[in-house]
Amino acid sequence: MNKLILKIIVVISCYTSTYAQMASSSFFSEMKSINPAVIGGREFGQYSAVGGKDKIEKEQIVDEINGEVSTTEIDIDTLTFFRGGKSGGFLTTELSLIKNSGTRVITVDSPTTDPTTISNDISFSHMELGVGLGKFFGLSLARQSYEFSSKFSFTFGGNTFSEDIKEDITSNIIKAGAVLPLSNFKFAGYFERASLTIDKEEFKVITGYDKSSTTEATNGVGLGIGYENKALHLELGYEKSLSSGSPTRISGTGEIKFWKIALGYTGRLYQNGFKDNDKLVFNELALSPDDESEDSRVEHIFNFAYGASGGFSVGGSASFSEVETKETNPLTSAMLGKLDTTIKSTSVMVKVGYVY
Fold first, then answer.
1. Residues 6+ apart with CB under 8 A from 319
2. Would you place residue 156 in the very low, low, confident or very high pLDDT band (cuts 50, 70, 90)?
3. pTM, whole model, 2 decimals?
4. Measured distance CA(101)–CA(188) in Å, rounded
5. Is a pLDDT exceeding 50 seen at residue 4?
């Protein structure tokens, strides 16, 4: 089955976690770092447990004349443990443990036939250790594991569709970053290398079960400039994947803190098929491996925390989006080509923790 090509907003907190920025530490202490060099600048340490839920809904008009409609629903539940160290020594550590589970359900409805439904289970884990070396340098290592299986056989619209596939993907991500502080301003950059091993088992009519293993590797860089004081954090970031097509991501962040309350917003512009290597679930479920779309998509992230300056802390994040695009449908004839597609995405996350 072809991978789904969902031109949607990358939802927060479910596929891995929420993220701090590249140039300076976020007011939200539970955020793991895009650039590991900012780990050593975290003003407060944090222990936190996070629960999240994401829901993606997609609708396609397969045949407007005959009233055939395809819907896809992806539901993901997330549990996360995060420990972020407080700056002050030469070594500051950051640990993230993330577990995802969920389902993807594809349904094709027609007035003349019974609905056809395919359901797939999803399992994912993410472990990451980051180390800040003083307040200027940082390193991180992440390992991800993704499992997906799909088995079905049915006839729809005179065509027979069948699939029996199991896919296991492991990913290792290494990052090295640096920060240069100049008064309240900070300039930063990082280098990233991600490698994937894809083990696949697929049933073929002629040869039976066929096993294969492939590896992929990508490199990327990021640059950022930020301004911060005790009550305000502003930042701009630019990231680029060093692959064909010039995939890029541009980010802007604004955060304020007063009393024990912190509020934040981050907007991100994805261009030319940019993929966040930390979000393996999203990349596999929502983006085609050969996606080189020139379409842009925007991600909106809203954050809130009470107790950001110490002691018991609670907080949350929310994200929502709606976009119209074109993509093929895996349960219909390829002759139909790309169909008009409407995609809605919502995400919520709540956390409890202790700030020290």
1. 9, 11, 12, 299, 300, 301, 302, 345, 346, 347
2. low
3. 0.81
4. 35
5. no
Q: DSSP assignment of 75-130, as one string? A: EEEEEEEEEEPPSSSSEEEEEEEEEEEEEEEEEEEETTEEEEEEEEEEEEEEEEEE
Q: What is the pLDDT of residues 61-106, one digit of tens each?
A: 877 777 788 888 888 888 989 998 888 888 999 999 988 888 888 8
% of the chain exceeding 70 in pLDDT: 83
Measured distance CA(255)–CA(353) in Å, rounded? 19
pLDDT in tens, 246-297: 889 999 999 999 888 999 998 888 888 788 887 777 677 665 444 445 567 7
In this structure, is the dihedral angle defined by the CA atoms of residues 235, 240, 246 and 249, taken in order, positive or negative? negative
CA distance 283 to 198: 13
- Report the sign of the C-alpha dihedral through residues 26, 28, 34, 37, in that order: positive
**What does the buried/exposed string (b/e) look like for 94-128 if buried means 16 or more CB atoms within 10 Å of the residue's CB?**
bebebebebebebebebeeeeebebebebebebeb
The strand pair at 91-110 and 339-355 is best described as unpaired
Q: For position 10, what pLDDT does the model report? A: 29
Matching residue, tokens 């997609």: 58
Which tokens go with 108? 């094709």
Residue 192 pLDDT: 96
Other beta carbons within 10 Å of 298: 13
Could you give the CA distance from residue 90 to residue 133 in angstroms, rounded to a whole number?
A: 6
Smallest CA-to-CA distance from 285 within 118, 75, 128 is with 75
